Hints:
By secondary structure, this protein is α/β, with parallel strands linked by helices. The protein has a single domain, classed as Rossmann fold, CATH 3.40.50. 40% of the residues lie in helices and 20% in strands. It has a four-stranded parallel sheet, with helices on one face. Helix 2 (57-69) links the parallel strand 3 and strand 4 (78-81). Helix 1 (23-36) packs parallel to helix 2 and helix 2 runs parallel beside helix 3. The protein is globular and about 35 Å long. The relative contact order is 0.20. The mean pLDDT is 94.
Amino acid sequence: MSISLFLDDKRPTPKGFERTYTVQETIELIQDCHVKNIEIEVLSLDNDLGEGEAEGYTVLDWLEEQFYEDDTFQLPNKIIVHSDNAAARERMEMVIARLYGE
């Protein structure tokens, strides 16, 4: 079994994706998938999630920590950034490249 996740506070959810609105919701769903051995096909991230909310980049920080601390932790097959924030997108894509050894 596998799922695809879409983190965004405003955009419509693409067909075939599970929707999360916050960093906390996203992390909890990823943790749940890990425990239940559910593969994450695609993780699509926005960065700017509204005033006072944690940024999508925080999910990547958490993923990186899990990946390096837990030998059983499985990264999503693909992580994409759909943020309009060019600076955040670049920073996020650098972390993604590092995670996948690109």
